[in-house]
Write a structure and sequence with these properties.
Layout lengths: L1 E6 L5 E9 L6 E10 L3 E2 L4 E2 L11 H46 L6 H10 L1
Antiparallel strand pairs: 1-2, 2-3, 4-5
Amino acid sequence: MSTKLYLRKNSGNVKISLRYRPDRQTNIVIATPFTIEAEKWDSKKEIYSESFKKKKPTNEIDKKQNIFIDEFNFKLSEFKTSIYSFILNNNFDVSSRNKTFNNEKSLFIPFYINFIRFMFKQ
């Protein structure tokens, strides 16, 4: 099981996407409610890059930028924590549903009438 936050594009304002892989065959990608400029994203740490923070801000603009970066990273870490806890709490249920879905999908129905009966059961 792995999760990763990443950007789908390399320029402009981009939505941050979450990729969840419960196993090697399954790849689930969803868009998060967060957007960021691609140049300001740190892909290794999966946060707003700390290099854009000012070391010792003297004016109000730099202070607000530092506060914005800290708040953004905090909200993103809260989001990651809630997603991870949801996945861990529901991992068995989701994986069992996924297995049954894959098994149903590969079901072989030789006759048309059997197909119709199968669809009515669904």
